[in-house]
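Methods — Computational structure assignment.
A single polypeptide chain was analysed. Its primary sequence is given first, followed by the predicted tertiary structure written as structure tokens.
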Amino acid sequence: HTHQREDRVETEANPNAPGPDSAGLFEDFIDIFVTPAKVFARRAKSGGGMAFLVVCIALAAVLYSGKNVMDPIMEAQMAKGMAAAQKANQNLTTEQLQAGMAFQRKLAPVFMVIGAPLAVLGVTLLVWIVGKVFGAAITFGTGLMIASYAYVPRILAGIVTDVQGLLMNDTSQLTNPSQLSMGPARFFDPNTTGAVTLAMLTRLDLVTIWVTVLLAVGLYAAGKLTKEKAITAGVVIWLLGCVFPLWGAIRQG
């Protein structure tokens, strides 16, 4: 009874404080689609190691299963990158360019495995830094937890991408990830649309917005930010997330 009273007092003092909850990891991955604030609140002090592991394995599996869909896109992107490299350095020979593409093809399976962990860790760093700037009660472990659960929609997006590939008669026409986007970028021809414009349109993808909203909810529920600060922090994280795509687009342009 004493412990129950203490839990009740803590919850009344702070509405975001995690109450007694015996939900497991499986429930977390269901609840993140329905009641994300509760997931972040109850895991605020437990760290995100297990969620990170499960999300990364699931994302790697989805990426590998969709390899046939992504292969033509990767080939087209590599060719585009090599063309830009040759334009910047006229001394590059055809043999050197072909060797570079062959090396990238060998690295592709490696990136399928390490890409997801690197992405989640990068988002973790953003959440931790931006959260600290806005005064969130957050550790790196809490940031990892927020980023890991916020990335769950990416698993769903990967499955949708795989299904799209199965329904396509000819995937060889795919040359840019924007063609599989669940946002405005999908409706623009990647061959005639500027790289910078396409990069920004891709950032308006439904799943990217969804992940950003979950990051803001995590900073509110686990980081104890006010709603206003959490929303602002989410916008800042989204803007910072534009840096690498824009940099890559400018280099290609």
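Note: Residues 219 and 230 are 6 Å apart (CA to CA).
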